[in-house]
Amino acid sequence: MPDSDPHVTFDRSRQTRIGLEEAVLAEPKTDAQIAAIVADAIAEGRRLLLTRLIEAQHAALARDLRERLDYCPLSRTAILGPLPRQNNQPAVALVSAGTSDAAVATETERVLSYSGLGATRITDVGVAGLWRLLRHEETLRRMQVVIVFAGMDAALPSVVAGLVPGLVIAVPTSVGYGVAAGGRAALDAALASCAPGVLVTNIDNGYGAACAALRFARVTGGG
Amino acid sequence: MPDSDPHVTFDRSRQTRIGLEEAVLAEPKTDAQIAAIVADAIAEGRRLLLTRLIEAQHAALARDLRERLDYCPLSRTAILGPLPRQNNQPAVALVSAGTSDAAVATETERVLSYSGLGATRITDVGVAGLWRLLRHEETLRRMQVVIVFAGMDAALPSVVAGLVPGLVIAVPTSVGYGVAAGGRAALDAALASCAPGVLVTNIDNGYGAACAALRFARVTGGG
Amino acid sequence: MPDSDPHVTFDRSRQTRIGLEEAVLAEPKTDAQIAAIVADAIAEGRRLLLTRLIEAQHAALARDLRERLDYCPLSRTAILGPLPRQNNQPAVALVSAGTSDAAVATETERVLSYSGLGATRITDVGVAGLWRLLRHEETLRRMQVVIVFAGMDAALPSVVAGLVPGLVIAVPTSVGYGVAAGGRAALDAALASCAPGVLVTNIDNGYGAACAALRFARVTGGG
Amino acid sequence: MPDSDPHVTFDRSRQTRIGLEEAVLAEPKTDAQIAAIVADAIAEGRRLLLTRLIEAQHAALARDLRERLDYCPLSRTAILGPLPRQNNQPAVALVSAGTSDAAVATETERVLSYSGLGATRITDVGVAGLWRLLRHEETLRRMQVVIVFAGMDAALPSVVAGLVPGLVIAVPTSVGYGVAAGGRAALDAALASCAPGVLVTNIDNGYGAACAALRFARVTGGG
Amino acid sequence: MPDSDPHVTFDRSRQTRIGLEEAVLAEPKTDAQIAAIVADAIAEGRRLLLTRLIEAQHAALARDLRERLDYCPLSRTAILGPLPRQNNQPAVALVSAGTSDAAVATETERVLSYSGLGATRITDVGVAGLWRLLRHEETLRRMQVVIVFAGMDAALPSVVAGLVPGLVIAVPTSVGYGVAAGGRAALDAALASCAPGVLVTNIDNGYGAACAALRFARVTGGG
Amino acid sequence: MPDSDPHVTFDRSRQTRIGLEEAVLAEPKTDAQIAAIVADAIAEGRRLLLTRLIEAQHAALARDLRERLDYCPLSRTAILGPLPRQNNQPAVALVSAGTSDAAVATETERVLSYSGLGATRITDVGVAGLWRLLRHEETLRRMQVVIVFAGMDAALPSVVAGLVPGLVIAVPTSVGYGVAAGGRAALDAALASCAPGVLVTNIDNGYGAACAALRFARVTGGG
Amino acid sequence: MPDSDPHVTFDRSRQTRIGLEEAVLAEPKTDAQIAAIVADAIAEGRRLLLTRLIEAQHAALARDLRERLDYCPLSRTAILGPLPRQNNQPAVALVSAGTSDAAVATETERVLSYSGLGATRITDVGVAGLWRLLRHEETLRRMQVVIVFAGMDAALPSVVAGLVPGLVIAVPTSVGYGVAAGGRAALDAALASCAPGVLVTNIDNGYGAACAALRFARVTGGG
Amino acid sequence: MPDSDPHVTFDRSRQTRIGLEEAVLAEPKTDAQIAAIVADAIAEGRRLLLTRLIEAQHAALARDLRERLDYCPLSRTAILGPLPRQNNQPAVALVSAGTSDAAVATETERVLSYSGLGATRITDVGVAGLWRLLRHEETLRRMQVVIVFAGMDAALPSVVAGLVPGLVIAVPTSVGYGVAAGGRAALDAALASCAPGVLVTNIDNGYGAACAALRFARVTGGG
């Protein structure tokens, strides 16, 4: 959003201070606000990351802006500008329980990519079919950070945290209906995990989990 | 409680109609009401099962009544009169996640006993240490009814239901603090289970789970 | 969903392990994902069951796929391929309180059908007109499994469980407004049932209730 | 409480205006406040009704005050002074589901008594044993006001309201554990009743239900 | 809905038993179900009352059916057939706090009309401008039943119940935003009323309040 | 709305009594009701303030009405008629945490404007980049009333109230997803502020915060 | 608490920065911590204000400390040292609905006293007996700040705010049972007030309301 | 707990698998169970860590067991056996907002100590007096892991996460009353943090935060 807009004070010193660039949370913004933000970044030659950019918002952008964005509808993220060279330090895995949880995992993957951190994806390993997860046990035990995406009963973070020594971050998702709708059941299950040391983000907060992994990377010399 | 008490209408036809004897839920009753109920059963030569009889209530009974009861403080159940011969038809397992969940599992075990149905106990097999559960996989796969007791994140019913073909009943428990306190997180996780066909009782309702197993027994010719 | 899709790991050993085929929960999936899943099953000659396939999703399928599906808009289920021969072992009744609860009951009926288990339907017997239910008392007392579908105050499972010896499964529904909206009031009433041994599923989880009945069938030699 | 207490403004015109005397809600008051209120009423020769006077508060009163009160520990009500002549116009029934609900029903009965209105008690007729209620159907159908006390699933008000033409008032009670604890499940079930025209009070509000019956009496010429 | 529809068991004995005709709750029904219900009533020459018939549902009816209905979009009610002669016994007032609450009050007014009971409307008398209500004090004090419709803080029922001797029924409404959205704040305020004897319905349940008034009418010889 | 509409009783004495003109909450009203209200004010030569007038409602107004309104889509407010001369007594600041919170702050600003009270805007100073806020510390310390708009964790009011001596009013906003959705987390954080004397409005209630500032102005001789 | 205690960093610059001295919230502290805090203040000749000091905590203090405190058990506040000269600028009223709400009002009164600000008390004027409040209308209309204390339905702040031009602060209290227990119903009703400009504190936060009044005093030259 | 106890299956392979020793959560256990666990560890020469051992439980231990334990009543932790040599790799800070939050921070400190990891304590730096925190900014910016303990509005984690590049873990505490009671407000505020990458544990879960830091240590070569 251009500096002339009286409603925005961009936080350009964030990168310097805490090592994380600011992303733009698109969903609550108007089409005009998003267009101004993208146009401004192009004009200034800056890279840009938008999260929760829903398809209708993406479609509402003028074609010249839209074509400059690498947009992923599954994760609702858009990236402007080139990705840095990817490395795999620290070793990060993204583990998701069901097909629908994969959308949030992809958001995390894209945010990490934007900052040059690669990650290993393990998909569709919900605990109702435990053998699917156990196939990956050795891989998971080598990871420094394991981010687990699960909705409904969110049993997966507990099982994973009982198998691996690394930092375990649970991202509860809003997948499901009845008591699962909105993700509160998954959130509470993750917070109440019987496995020691599980850390939790807000529901569907793939962006936040990525930022935590980037903090890990920064203070351990990786990323 | 004597028939002369104007506050009680005993439901003596329940046994005939649905095959389950009525148990006395002691906790909300006064000491005097409990004493009258026990004395009345002794006078009539009836057996009696009391649930949620807390230690102070048990201690408040006159010694002659108290000595007639087989009281289990862990499960807060008391039984008056002899147990029937135990059989193991249908095959029922009681699986509990943590030490504290075992109190509720013992309530179920004692209610089944009171009706003559034996059960296999498997204890302390929470998913944070998955190898503890997997040791019992073959036993569990032979069961017709598996009752799973778990508080906190209640991940165990989902894992069990993914391993066994039998009927799976989850009993969420109120064990835990923070979001786990009171058992709502465990209840919602059990209801939102990602494994197909998990059935759920109220929080800490070991009595209800036993009654369901007895219904199973009755209509399949066992129990 | 084709094996080449990186977001899905199909659980083909489920049938072997727990005796239940995996169904596809359509609602959170994209149109493209659903189309791929259906096309893949046709190509491989497999049967397929989709649940919570909303009308817009069904309409979005290409005509050749759509015509292969037996779609029921009331229950939002779609079946690909032939139904097995139906039997009635164990004896299962599906009892619903109001017109709107019948949609969830139909989901259960269709899932049972898909696995070859017939069921007796009893409809519109809410407790506000008790005589409607009592007409069916004898039928209900002969059942091994009675699944009760009720929203709003969900009083029906308690009344039924007081009348019959069989296993009683309550499926709370999201029918209603005000405190009833979303089904939490019905769920809590079913969990707090004053009748002994009522088992409960998640709100609107007709699929889960069917799976529980199929588990019953499998371990008692029926189904 | 004496007029000299700066914390109380007694509402002596209530009786004139809306036909209901003010009762003293004792529970949140200090022992000294309660003693002052009772002493003051004795000094002025006024009758007095205290509700939710817990046993410890009653025991803390000086003996001369305590002996002047007709105290009922079950309903936690105390009455000072003579009861008026009782009549039965309008016809009111108090119907309670379980033993524990009877405490709240007794509160209502005592408040009605204090104002001279008699009531028919029907006890322990929870819907899990429907035959107990149906025995009273004819009596209930003759009533003008039926007040139903039920905790847990609160299915009884719906069943009663489907049987009788009179005004039906549900008083949800806090009896129960797990989701039933505190009475919210019972309250929501009563509010969501599938039977038409059920009216509801706050949880455990036996006093409020009595006041509603007294309003009915006053505007129809009874009471 | 025609008797041939397997999903409906019409409760035609309700009128005989409890003196209230069954209304059709339209909102959760499909367009086809509503059309069948209306057509069936026309064919049989029966009157019919539909509640919560939203405008899109009304518009979806075939023209010949739609023209037979007296439809009120504000209250979302439709009436088929003639209204009975109106009387004013008992004396009923409908008091609403804000413009938006009036929609629910109109639902009550129309349901009463359908059964021949007239009512006095008092509108827009929220407590923030107390003088508006106090102008009507004398009228209100002559009423036997006062139904109060209020959302947001629902302070109006408490104030009214402190002014009048008649039966007071609070209908909380879902008007408002933030903590008021959905009506739970209004519901809880009405249940927690500091005025004695306030009775409460579900949120937005204008139909239920009317049924309660009709029960009052029936057992006091009016209506 | 014209006086002839039976659903509205305009509160024209409000201005005299409490010094605040009544605004029209547009959102729950029908297009016809809004049109009548605007037309009526034009006919009578009165000024008018509408809040929560969503874009579709504004677009639905006839062109001649629409053109008379000064409509702000960001804050969803519309003003009819001239603004009074603005003054800055008392000194009021409007401080908002994020871009999206600014919409609610603009509602407050417009309501103040309508009554002639100017305000200082400070935007995008969320606590995640504390230096943005601290730049304004001196300005804020000179204010008599500081209104803080924040969603999500609503940490800003606590930080501000620790920096300034003036009256601090927190307006929680519904910005955010997961646990932040709807604004309850922000509301509770503001109410639980660790800084002394923070006052709180309903979620998104920019209108209410403005009214509080106008009350301040009136009783201190400003505004 | 002495500076040597590693668990406390006293905020002695608060008085300078925001014009409010820090009070000590006693309830969550241990007896030893409270004794150290009091002893330390005596040693340094500082005044001290403790809030939420429950009777058992007060009784646990050594006699020499206890005798130095002016302790009020009703409001659970203790003051060490002399009170400043009281003035009445600005004009503040403390209005409470019921006897029990008066405890919180007394907390506010004592905190104001400690800072030298007098206040007018109006007690027991709940809306169920409106005439009690209306007697004080003229007094209330002269106030600059009116703090209203109410539990249960918290209807009083709305009624007061409709009568007076001054700043209205609602302090919801936890008085009541059922849905009123804990004060959430009162809080939500106050937040959802239909009267414009009502500001709200946390439940039972008499201290916070006093601090807000002191902020008002400070920036308007009074206090 | 001895292996002979049928209610416990000790998880002795946990240390090997995930690098964390199992701690004993004492609160839900009986006095006898705790005594057996301690005696067993002494007999086997094992170290032992007990968490949430309340003072009454500690006092109930036989003197010879009690004297072997290093018990800290503030944090309710007990340690049996010698502490390992402490190192400070990784660099961990424990930052707490108020005096009461320090109890949970001490639990974390003791658990870290038990595993040989030192930590920097920063106490009483709640955001209401921001200068207290800012004094420590440089120290905090050098940390690899910053664990923030805060109840009430939990604004501190957001402010800290905006200042430092390290991993930030928020531990919400149950300190506070009204909406803050139980810690849900603090939990939700921490989850909804406006600062990027804040990770959250269950309420009061100082043990879990320590385990997360130990996971960090293990996979980065420290601890």
Automatic annotation (TrEMBL), chains A, B, C, D, E, F, G, H:
InterPro entries, alphabetized: P2CMN_synthase_LarB, PurE_dom
One Gene Ontology MF term: hydrolase activity
Domain PurE: 90-222
Name of one Pfam family that matches: AIRC
GO BP annotation list: 'de novo' IMP biosynthetic process
PANTHER family reported for this sequence: PHOSPHORIBOSYLAMINOIMIDAZOLE CARBOXYLASE-RELATED, SLL1489 PROTEIN
Record-linked NCBIfam families: LarB (NF033503)
Protein name listed in UniProt: Nickel pincer cofactor biosynthesis protein LarB
Organism: Paenirhodobacter populi
